[in-house]
Design brief:
four-stranded antiparallel β-sheet, about 450 residues, 7 helices, alpha+beta
């Protein structure tokens, strides 16, 4: 569903709620995954659809009085900001925000997230600035910190723990915090980077993902559930919706449209959920497509037309996201060891994988050719979680023996930096999608937020 439609349904939902049609509002909320307005929502916010209608009717009547034809929608939108003062509507901030998020007409990319990305075929590779990551903030769980995920806009990052809790942190607040003042108690800093803490699972958190449009965070757990949280509500600590499975849910991922969710469990069959019908997951009807062991990770490509999965059976599978059929299988992708993590490059030319053979591998999708092979250390007991940095110049991984995160040069495979500070095994690494900031999660119960300073070529 496109952003404009989401905004429309959110306005309709607020109007229904304001007018007392709670049954209709609840039904719409469940169908669209847009949370109901909180009790503290101001009346003018809930009445916004009615006010917008008045703006439209005002402009329409004005043109009618002048004998002019109705304006096309795009021209009407361009006219609205100039009429807001006449209607005494305080809505300039929304249009200013829209301008800030204006996309490049040729590339369709937000100006802030532009990057040349990874391309081994480029005749003149872009100049790389080698980063020096330093810890800016530390948050502590009561048990192992197992997973982290940045929101698509890079404004938030969520962490999940074996203690069943989930924290949502404000990235800008973490960037301005100085962790060197103390290695303890950072969660209680005046800036309060931890904005939400959710408690609704009964077992360890396995994976997290943010909805690409609305303020919804989902989590999967060893308790065999997927939980849905509204992270825009200050006082909410519980999920507003959940999916129950019969198996440990090891990995989840939203489709780029937000309409579907992939789920990989201890069972070898991948589930696909439509957010409008979470009770009836879709699975491939072709037995030859399924893995032969538990699913370690599932991830959509940026365009959403394909997705990838990796399994304890040692294989990586590339799937058509429309037909839900396997396009290609890389058997024994990590020499028979488990591939534990996978990620597409932004241009969908390449696939990054990490495995329990302690190697990082980079694959060319069109040919299945292996382009990069990085040995990270000795045999791995824990999963090797790998990720591209925001511009794909570097790869993040961890060192099980050294209790550190590691940064590698994507093109050369050379070691760039060891991220030291944790006192136990680093279980997860994740990168912001919009800037050079990352997060590492460890068995020492902590998540460390790092920001890079350029240090040269």
């Amino acid at each position: 569903m496109k952003l404009e439609k989401r905004n429309l349904y959110q306005l309709i939902l607020a109007e229904l709620h304001h007018s007392g049609f709670q049954t209709a509002a609840t039904a719409l909320s469940e169908a669209t995954l847009i949370p109901l307005p909180s009790r503290g929502t101001k009346e003018d916010e809930e009445n916004r659809l009615f006010r917008l209608m008045k703006v439209g009717l005002y402009i329409e009547k004005e043109r009618e009085d002048k004998g002019l034809p109705p304006l096309p929608v795009e021209d009407l939108l361009a006219t609205v900001p100039g009429k807001l003062d006449d209607m005494d509507l305080d809505m300039h901030a929304d249009y200013m925000q829209a301008d800030l998020l204006k996309k490049d007409e040729k590339t369709g990319e937000d100006d802030r997230t532009k990057s040349s990305g990874l391309d081994f075929d480029a005749p003149n590779p872009p100049r790389r600035i080698f980063p020096n990551f330093t810890t800016k903030f530390i948050t502590t769980h009561k048990n192992s910190c197992r997973v982290a995920k940045f929101s698509p806009d890079g404004k938030f990052v969520a962490t999940g723990s074996s203690d069943t809790s989930i924290k949502v942190l404000d990235v800008e607040k973490m960037k301005t915090f100085n962790h060197t003042k103390s290695e303890h108690g950072e969660d209680f800093a005046p800036a309060k980077p931890v904005t939400r803490t959710f408690y609704d699972h009964t077992n360890a958190i396995n994976d997290l993902d943010f909805h690409p449009v609305v303020p919804v965070l989902i989590s999967s757990s060893k308790d065999c559930t997927i939980k849905f949280y509204d992270h825009s509500q200050n006082s909410v600590k519980r999920a507003f919706k959940h999916v129950q499975d019969t198996h440990n849910i090891r990995s989840i991922n939203f489709h780029p449209s937000g309409e579907y969710i992939l789920s990989g469990t201890e069972h070898p069959v991948i589930r696909l959920y439509d957010i409008n019908n979470l009770t009836q997951p879709y699975t491939s009807s072709r037995p030859q497509d399924h893995h032969l062991g538990p699913i370690n990770q599932v991830r959509y490509a940026p365009e959403g037309n394909i997705f990838v999965s990796c399994s304890k059976d040692g294989s990586i599978k590339l799937w058509d996201a429309v037909s839900h059929r396997v396009i290609n299988t890389i058997q024994k992708a990590h020499n028979g060891a488990e591939p534990t993590s996978v990620q597409f490059s932004a241009n969908q030319k390449y696939l990054l994988s990490g495995g329990k053979d302690a190697t990082i591998r980079l694959w060319e999708l069109t040919t299945g050719r292996q382009l990069q092979h990085i040995i990270t250390g000795s045999h791995w007991k824990h999963r090797l979680q790998v990720a591209f940095t925001w511009n794909e110049d570097f790869i993040l991984s961890s060192d099980e023996n050294g209790y550190a995160g590691v940064v590698w040069d994507t093109r050369s495979g050379d070691l760039v930096q060891r991220l030291t500070g944790h006192t136990n095994v680093v279980l997860w690494t994740a990168s912001s999608p919009v800037e050079n900031s990352i997060i590492t999660c460890s068995n020492d119960h902590r998540a460390r937020f790092w920001v890079a300073e350029p240090v040269g070529q």
